[in-house]
TrEMBL record:
This is Oxidoreductase. Residues 50-285 form the NADP-dependent oxidoreductase domain. CDD domains: AKR_unchar. Pfam families: Aldo_ket_red. SUPFAM superfamilies: NAD(P)-linked oxidoreductase. Coiled coil: none annotated. InterPro entries: AKR2_Oxidoreductase, NAD(P)_OxRdtase_dom_sf, NADP_OxRdtase_dom. It comes from Nonomuraea cavernae.
Length: 317
């Protein structure tokens, strides 16, 4: 493995992802309450821009989108243009591999289709560049797994090397109960600048591999810190709700503070669907983590297979 310090992530500890705002349906719990009845393109653009404005004002400088997040790239690009934010003033990471096919319907049978091929990479990179232009700082494989074979696909790897040589950092996001194995395989390649993985109080299995990635010089981005709503006030396990109440915090802030306390965590993503949720998430940066919290909340950890089976059962809503 070769250390890579060419691409440090921005100093701000939290970023904002638009997975829940770029399309009308997602697997976050409580979207009817969060978004209301109007999920038209114009309404979600306004909501996205409000969250982006609040994030910018709070000092957030990392923004995460993907080709499959509906119009997320378009919304972000429009906001960057309208606010006259120069390339380099923020770090924009996008992802390729899934295509959004939901037709802007909440009741679509299929919302996204995965294909980690060199052909899709080339096509989606062109689409991302058309929208984001010079703002595109980081391009990531979307939900790489060992089973997908993408990390052994020489055509894909050659495309990633070419992109990296052109000055765009390359990364991968991971998914599923074998995230650690995927991360370790990526480290063997010595190609990637960042890794984005799921780690939260319920699903901790990728932690040691993320520590290895950090130690090898990769930037670590953490997604799904509130487990698609399972670690918010809406559905928080009893012990998390109780500890948050004792500390005068919201469950989501406590859950995100647990990630910020990990020495390998570079940027922790908020997937807020409203300005109020964003502000609640951002209070995590002021939470002092301690051994008592670690001990009391350790009981929340699930077996990886259990966690991912539960996540897989969440309905698009």
């Amino acid at each position: 493995m070769t250390a890579n310090t060419r691409y440090p992530l921005p100093a701000t500890p939290m970023g904002v992802g638009l997975a829940a705002l770029g399309r009308p349906a997602y697997i976050t719990l409580g979207r009817a309450e969060d978004l209301g009845a109007d999920r038209g393109i114009a309404a979600l653009r306004v909501r996205s821009w409000a969250v982006l404005d609040a994030a910018w004002a709070a000092g957030v400088r990392y923004f995460d989108v993907a080709r499959s997040y509906g119009r997320a790239e378009e919304f972000l690009a429009g906001w960057l243009r309208e606010r006259a934010i120069a390339p380099g003033a923020v770090t924009v990471g996008s992802k390729w591999g899934y295509a959004y096919v939901g037709g802007w319907r909440t009741d679509a049978d299929v919302h996204e289709v995965k294909e980690l091929s060199a052909g899709r990479f080339r096509r989606q990179l062109g689409e991302s560049r058309d929208l984001l232009g010079e703002h595109l700082s980081l391009y990531q494989i979307h939900s790489a797994t060992l089973e997908s074979g993408v990390l052994d696909d020489e055509d894909v790897l050659a495309e990633l090397r070419e992109l990296r040589a052109a000055g765009v950092a390359v990364g991968l996001s991971t998914t599923g109960p074998r995230q650690a194995g995927t991360i370790d395989r990526a480290l063997e390649l010595g190609l990637f600048d960042t890794v984005q993985a799921t780690w939260n109080l319920l699903e901790r299995s990728a932690g040691p591999a993320l520590a290895r990635a950090h130690g090898s010089g990769l930037g670590v981005i953490v997604k799904e810190g509130v487990a698609n709503g399972r670690l918010t006030a809406r559905a928080a396990p009893r012990v998390l709700a109780a500890v948050a109440r004792e500390r005068g915090l919201t469950p989501d802030a406590l859950a995100l503070a647990a990630i910020l306390a990990r020495p390998w965590a570079g940027v922790v993503l908020s997937g807020a669907a409203s300005v109020e949720q964003l502000h609640s998430n951002l209070t995590a940066t002021g939470v002092g983590w301690d051994a008592e919290l670690d001990e009391r909340l350790a009981v929340l950890a699930e077996e990886p297979e259990t966690y991912w089976a539960t996540r897989g059962s969440l309905k698009w809503q």
